[in-house]
Design a protein that fits this description.
The chain is an alpha+beta fold. The chain has 2 domains: 203 residues, Endonuclease I-creI, CATH 3.10.28; 93 residues, no CATH class. 56% of the residues lie in helices and 16% in strands. 28% of the residues are buried.
């Protein structure tokens, strides 16, 4: 099951009072339905692949309006043969849509009704319904964090953003900065910050999904940190080995031309130590030098002498 599906199911399984049920259903119908006018009258089709969402919509319509809409099940034979579930409202359709503050004559309003801006719980239920209808969120195991709600209606998405911004400034004092972009023929309201996604899920009271998101994200970040540290260790080892090889090459050159024995004792000591311990780092050479020659020496002094050996070798043709 995808992470988006988990979030939507959790939002559907919450308990809502009458006003919140209306707000939730209103957003779903606005975002994911088709309005049909025929000789039989006005009807609305609401379609989802998720049976849990369809059950919740059916229950809410029954709870609020005591209606039992028609349920149509279709199978997609072309792709992965998934089922599509459609709820068709055909009795008292216009009265239901008007009660949900959706209609402007015989068409849907492009704006969110003012009543949903005036009640914090209704606002939350409306935003939850909008996400269930047209939202998605990347799994926290993926490289990029992303949560979005899509619509072909820019004015509606701007109104939804205004509703969320109002929540930010109000009781919940969230710090979620949604942005809108155009993607092909649709508009997308989105956030890309892990912290904002967690705050949004928490605000909608999708707490199980929120904790799962945080748990997976923390595990992934921990693994990434370990990998970065391992990569740094490998890079440092390669750097140390390259430097050691260059130093050994210079020392062998000095030995070949009988020049090493002409150098002072300090340079000869470090040259012999480097040849003996070809894989040792500078820090390890400090300990080895003190043990071998019973003389205290600093890391910078070791480094200085090795560089001097290389310089001498380079100057000799």
């Amino acid at each position: 099951m995808s992470f988006s599906r988990e979030v939507k199911i959790e939002l559907c399984e919450q308990e809502y009072d009458l006003g919140c049920k209306k707000a939730f259903i209103s957003a779903i119908i606005k975002m994911n339905s088709s309005l049909n006018i025929s000789n039989k009258g006005l009807s609305v089709d609401i379609s989802f692949q998720n049976a849990t969402i369809i059950k919740k919509i059916y229950r809410f319509l029954n709870d609020i309006y005591h209606e039992k809409p028609q349920i149509i099940v279709q199978k997609n034979m072309k792709l992965n043969k998934t089922h599509y579930y459609t709820i068709r409202i055909f009795n008292n359709t216009l009265a239901i849509l008007e009660d949900l503050k959706l209609m402007d004559g015989l068409a849907f309003k492009s704006k969110i009704d003012l009543c949903y801006f005036q009640n914090a719980n209704w606002a939350k239920a409306y935003i939850a319904g909008s996400f269930v209808a047209a939202g998605s969120v990347n799994s926290p195991s993926k490289a990029n964090y992303h949560l979005e709600i899509q619509s072909s209606d820019l004015a509606y998405l701007e109104d939804l953003k205004r509703l969320i911004d109002l929540v930010n400034k109000g009781k919940y004092a969230l710090s979620i900065n949604f942005k809108i972009i155009k993607r092909r023929s649709n508009y997308v309201l989105y956030i890309k910050s892990a912290r904002e996604i967690v705050d949004f899920l928490n605000y909608l009271q999708a707490t199980t999904s929120m904790f799962n998101f945080e748990d997976i994200r923390m595990q992934r970040d921990f693994v990434n940190s370990i990998n970065r540290m391992n990569n740094m260790d490998v890079a440092n080892e390669q750097k140390v080995q390259k430097a050691a090889n260059e130093q050994i090459e210079a020392i062998n050159k000095l030995i070949t031309i009988n020049h090493l024995k002409r150098l002072d004792i300090g340079l000869r000591n470090i040259a012999n130590l480097r040849l003996k311990y070809s894989d040792a780092s500078l820090s390890e050479l400090v300990s080895l030098y003190e043990k071998e020659y019973q003389i205290k020496i600093s890391r910078s002094a070791i480094n200085h002498r090795l560089k001097k050996l290389k310089d001498i070798a380079l100057k000799i043709k």
